[in-house]
Specification:
The protein has four helices and no strands. With 142 residues, the chain is an all-alpha fold. It has one domain. The chain is elongated and about 70 Å long.
């Protein structure tokens, strides 16, 4: 839209600008809903694999859930909670202790800053950004 007087715009230009704005908002809303749905799907897959003692599959899905949820306070904290449960089930003291700290950090810092793409496990620095995995990249805005 050109800078200056709005009266110089035609009705067609105003309509087009309004249409593009609404389309972009709807696209963002749909992307956010898809991301939320995929978060819960990945979390469920992680929990199901944990029950079956398929530990590497479980943790992979919990990592995906973490990546998808890390910009939302509740989902971010929930993903760390399930990684904590994973640590208990696998008797991994490093994961248990690390996830306690990450749960606290997620409550304190999620709304301020998160390292995009970070998978959330204790095998990765909690402040290291990582490229988002290709299979879930489509859930993030460009």
């Amino acid at each position: 839209m050109p800078s200056g007087n709005l009266k110089s715009l035609t009705n067609c230009e105003v309509f087009l600008h309004l249409f593009i704005t609404i389309f972009c908002l709807l696209e963002k809303i749909m992307t956010n809903q898809q991301l939320k749905s995929e978060f819960y799907r990945q979390l469920q897959l992680g929990k199901e694999a944990l029950i079956k003692k398929e530990y590497s599959t479980s943790f992979y899905h919990l990592e995906n859930a973490h990546i998808l949820g890390q910009q939302h306070l509740w989902r971010h904290t929930l993903s760390h909670y399930w990684m904590f449960v994973f640590g208990i089930k696998t008797k991994n003291a490093k994961e248990i202790i690390g996830q306690v700290f990450r749960i606290i950090a997620s409550l304190l810092f999620t709304l301020i800053w998160v390292p995009k793409g970070n998978t959330g496990g204790t095998n990765i620095s909690p402040i290291k950004p990582i490229p988002i995995r290709k299979e879930i990249l489509k859930y993030f805005s460009k």
